[in-house]
Fold this sequence. Notes:
Elements: H1 9-18, H2 26-37, H3 41-57, E1 59-60, E2 67-68, H4 74-77, E3 82-89, H5 92-101, E4 106-110, H6 128-136, E5 142-145, H7 151-164, E6 170-173, H8 189-197, E7 200-201
Helix pairs in contact: 1-2, 5-8
Amino acid sequence: MNEIKLPSKFLDNAVRQLAKLPGVGNRTALRLALHLLNQSEEDIHLFSNSLIELKEQTCFCQKCFNISDQEICEICANPYRDQSLVCVVESIKEVMAIEFTQQFRGVYHVLGGVISPIDGIGPQQLKIEELVQRISEGNIKEIIFALSTTMEGDTTNFFIHKKIKDSGVNTSMLARGVSVGDSLEYADQLTLGRSIINRMPYQANL
């Protein structure tokens, strides 16, 4: 930390690591480190082991690329989910946001981001070809675009639509209850749920 010299190099190291977390500054990291320091050794081991297990034991679903403990995630493996209805999202956070609404009974496809040349992210860095492959297998009837309502999200929608427009699969998008520029992660459950139910046909208007 630059603001104050800490009395322990171990405390300083812990603060530096905690400060790497998104939204955590040096002062918050110091408070967290001091809180952890006051916990029992057993609690600290449980805490640290949970992070190690998170990294070592979790994987990505081989079908939809959602986070999973198995090769196929619980959503894809659920026989009561509509496998013909696929919601395309940017990340795992959007999967969780939509699942919280309890309004969607299909499955997902996690792209891993959106096309953003300024950030060096092109179609090749995303799971777009894997989506095209899923569609080519002939079991999918509808694709729902549920990407962020930004230029990058719209560009990605348009790119995917061009790739699959001749497949015979219907394409739709969320009703614009989600404001332009918003991320699904921050949309309230009621608005997001209604946007899914009232989805509209996708229009390629770029």
